[in-house]
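Journal club prep — side note

Before the paper discussion, L.F. wants everyone to see what a predicted structure for a comparable chain looks like in token form. Sequence:
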Amino acid sequence: MTKIRLMFNALAVLGVCLFCGSIAQAQATRTWVSGVGDDANPCSRTAPCKTFAGAISKTAACGEISVLDPGGFGVVTITKSITINGDGTLAGILAAGTNGIIINAGVNDVVTLRSLSINGACTGLNGIRYLAGKRVQVEHCSISNFTQKGIDVNLTASGRLDVINTTITNTADGVTMTNSAGTMHGALFNVRINGTTNAAVNMLSGALTISDSMVTNNTSFGLIAQGGSTITAERTVISHNGTGVTTNNGAANVLLSNTIINNNTTGISIVAGTVRSFLNNSIAPGQGAPNASTAQQ
């Protein structure tokens, strides 16, 4: 009887250890994906997963998913602080008919997306949808071929978007930002937005700074400030768009500094609101706003 009890206890301890080991594995701080991986794997360096969705469930909050080699790693929904890092290889997401990345995280969560190629295959909806979370940082990414938005920020609380060294092309809208509560801020640095059909940057609320960037060859609008939003453009080229800069609400503002506006069908259009220049911009003849009392140049 004693031997049986001892054997039972030993098996129980072994079971607990195996269970703990499984939890520890599921909560790895760094996980890996590979083009030849398998989501049944533990997502370790030597046994990587196949998709971002498979790896994210095995990655601890504030951890990182790293990409081992070129591949397409599938769409993913993010609900916690995490970094997805594709440095050094082709880390692709093909999002035909759907959204590439959805971020619906906690109020204190920070998400970083680095060195990803997000392609909607001309039928995808949005490249990145940011619905909740403290901050989202997009670095060195390429977002293309979506029928709606490259980056769609639609918050019900405070949040911040930072986009660095990124290209957005062939979408209906490049970056659209709105929030129904709290405060919302954004910054675009060294961002190229071209080939949109509606607007490169469409601010419905909040404040956005775009600097050292290019907004070119967009069918309808370059920068639109709506609602009570403010766009500050610094050292940015706005050219070959339908309308380069526009405000269409009395509380909307666009502030221009060291910015080039030329070769647009209409350079600056003020329906309502204010466009202010700091007198150090290069605005080609005929590209200024017809409402000189509102646009200070």
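L.F.'s comment for the group: The chain has one domain: 62-283. Keep this in mind when we get to the figures.
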